[in-house]
């Protein structure tokens, strides 16, 4: 039971305490004098409020207890071990930047998301991102998909079969009965990973979410053994540009400017040696998509094994060179 240093008597005091609690837990730094002027109270009152909050945190926090402390260097009070009750301004700004860079949503959905982020803060992040919002280019499909990807995710969690109509990349329309197992985002688009009913598959088939013409969840459930469950995180480590191919172990040499960028692009990559200033790397990934990234590294990457992938790289490079031969 917490000890009370004084009674909280008026609604104004209640609101002030709640606001102070929110401000601290959103990461705000409080200057006691300015806050007292804002609330039309004395600095002694603000001190009592902060003491009351510290007693409250001491009472309710079980692990790392929150505590409001004075930072002499900045002349502000800050909270340590804060518990998030929402996004801080810096959180919202960072998320907004990532959203704009993803170009995953329609213009209308993007504006709504940014507005929600801005409304969650005392500071207005709109001024900081106004230019990016003005120049935002939505994906060519122009569809609102947020509610749709939620529908897909519930089908996955319930393991319900879905009947779909799908427009393929060649513009042909097909109907499928699917067993949805995963949902991932990659390079501007969301993708459903699903097994096609009636077929034997080693890996799920990839469907781009915005290409569904119809998506109807049925009441029919499908069984998926725990050992065969689809792990989106593990899949994402090994897939590039959503081209699957076979899962293979690749070795390659890299001598470009940033080895860190290689590890970030290929989470399964590990250094196994070094030779003449070139880093030897091994990684497990899907072969088809990674070729596109390998080619983007120009003359700073050499595939060592498997031999089949090395030969495919040679063939692709030869064919590219032919395009630029003078007539």
UniProtKB/TrEMBL annotation:
InterPro entries xrefs: CBASS_pafABC_assoc_protein, WCX_dom, WYL_dom
Boundaries of every WCX domain copy: 248-320
Family annotation (Pfam families): WCX, WYL
Domain WYL as annotated: residue spans: 151-215
Domain of life of the native organism: Bacteria
Official protein name in the record: WYL domain-containing protein
Organism: Clostridium gasigenes
């Amino acid at each position: 039971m917490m000890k009370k240093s004084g009674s909280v008597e008026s609604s104004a005091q209640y609101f002030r305490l709640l606001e102070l609690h929110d401000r601290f837990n959103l990461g705000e730094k409080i200057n006691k004098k300015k806050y007292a002027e804002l609330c039309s109270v004395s600095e002694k009152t603000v001190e009592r409020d902060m003491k009351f909050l510290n007693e409250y945190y001491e009472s309710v926090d079980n692990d790392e207890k929150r505590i409001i402390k004075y930072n002499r260097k900045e002349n502000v009070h800050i909270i340590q071990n804060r518990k998030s009750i929402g996004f801080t301004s810096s959180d919202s700004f960072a998320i907004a930047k990532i959203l704009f860079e993803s170009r995953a949503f329609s213009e209308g959905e993007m504006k709504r998301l940014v507005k929600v982020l801005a409304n969650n803060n005392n500071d207005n992040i709109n001024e900081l991102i106004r230019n990016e919002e003005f120049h935002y280019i939505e994906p060519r499909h122009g569809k609102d998909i947020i509610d749709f990807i939620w529908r897909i995710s519930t089908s996955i969690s319930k393991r319900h079969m879905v009947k779909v109509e799908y427009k393929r990349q060649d513009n042909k329309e097909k109907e499928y009965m699917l067993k949805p197992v995963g949902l991932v985002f990659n390079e501007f688009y969301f993708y459903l990973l699903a097994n096609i009913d009636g077929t034997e598959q080693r890996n799920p088939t990839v469907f781009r979410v915005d290409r569904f013409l119809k998506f109807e969840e049925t009441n029919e459930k499908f069984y998926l053994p725990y050992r065969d469950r689809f792990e989106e995180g593990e899949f994402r480590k090994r897939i590039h540009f959503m081209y699957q191919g076979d899962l293979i172990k690749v070795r390659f040499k890299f001598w470009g400017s940033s080895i860190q960028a290689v590890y970030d692009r290929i989470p399964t990559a590990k250094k196994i040696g070094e030779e003449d200033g070139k880093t030897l790397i091994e990684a497990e990934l899907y072969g088809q998509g990674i070729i596109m990234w390998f080619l983007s590294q120009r003359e700073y990457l050499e595939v060592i094994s498997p031999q089949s992938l090395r030969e495919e790289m040679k063939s692709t490079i030869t064919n590219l060179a032919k395009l630029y031969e003078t007539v």
